[in-house]
Amino acid sequence: MQAFSLKNIPRIHLHIAFWMCVWIFKGVFQYSVNKHSYGELPFSQQLLLNFGLEFVLTLIKAGLSYTIAQLYFKNKKHIGTIDIILIALVFFFGMFLRVATLFLYLGYFEPLSPYYSPEIFTDITRLMYAIIDNGFFIGVFLIIKNYKFKVEGLRREQKLEMEKLRYEKDFLRAQINPHFLFNTMNNLFSQAQEKGNDDLADSISKLSVMMRYMIYDSNTERVLLKKEIDYLEGYIGLNKLRYQNEELSVDFKYPKNLNGELIAPMLLIPFVENAFKHGVSIKKNHL
């Protein structure tokens, strides 16, 4: 049975659940506070005046929260003066929108309410309550989002660290395998020399030099042309083992004085490979 985790819940569901909790909490709070004012009204109208109004106000809080979060998190490393000014303007616009919504809503559903008066826009108490009400829930939303932002950042760092360790492990494994192979080839070379099989020892030596060049020396943008030619000579020598002496003749010429010329590594080998693949014929034994 899979353990319950918030990570398995779609993000949009979590956001909806958060704002529904805000709406229900505020609706219950306003219902308990306004009992003395709306106690004589029918229960359905009390719900409409408390929960209905708070539903609209919750939509305003949610809109403000996401707008401010977008301004705040778009450049988390540096919050500029313009960003601060925009956040303040959005917040105070939300405060005004909240008071205007309260005025219009009560004016439509309860025109006799003491709050339905233009003086609500200049009532310091109501304005302060609007600031506290909006600021509290927007602040809670931003704190949760900031915590999630940091947690996701830590997860990304941990993931990168795990990938780095995996790459380092793979690199070490790649280093161990060639070392093992070279040691084995050195042992085979020694055994071939001890048994007097000079041809086999020479072939093992050429193969060892070629592999060392491919694994280590060619991991640069430029290599000495002499090393590239030595690699080609080793490749040619090993391929000639596939044929009898009279079956193949290779004419490989190059300037003896290379003067430290550089070349891109492994640039010439495709031509030699294709020469052996397509250019060798037993009837025409010259390459």
What is the compact description of this entry?
This protein has two domains: 6-166, no CATH class; 197-287, no CATH class.
Q: What does this protein structure show overall?
A:
The protein has 287 residues and is mostly helical. It has two domains: 6-166, no CATH class; 197-287, no CATH class. It is built from eight helices and two strands; from the N terminus they run H-H-H-H-H-H-E-H-E-H. It has helices spanning 11-33, 35-38, 43-73, 81-109, 124-194, 198-217, 225-240, 269-278; strands at residues 223-224, 262-263. It has a two-stranded antiparallel ribbon. Helix 1 (11-33) packs across helix 3 (43-73), helix 3 crosses helix 5 (124-194) and helix 6 (198-217) crosses helix 7. The longest helix has 71 residues, at 124-194. The model has no long low-confidence stretch (mean pLDDT 77).
Task: List the keywords.
287 residues, mainly alpha, two-stranded antiparallel ribbon
Average pLDDT score: 77
Could you give the distance between the termini?
69 Å
Q: Give the assembly state of these chains.
A: single chain
Tally the helices: 8
Secondary-structure element pattern, one letter each: HHHHHHEHEH
Helix content: over 70%
The shape, in one word, is rod-shaped
Question: What does the radius of gyration come to?
Answer: 40 Å
Largest sheet: 2 strands, antiparallel
Domain tally: 2
**Low-confidence parts, pLDDT < 50 over ≥5 residues?**
none
In terms of structural class, how would the helical and strand content be classed?
mainly alpha
How are the strands of the biggest sheet laid out side by side?
1-2
Strand content: under 5%
How many runs of DSSP E, i.e. beta strands?
Answer: 2
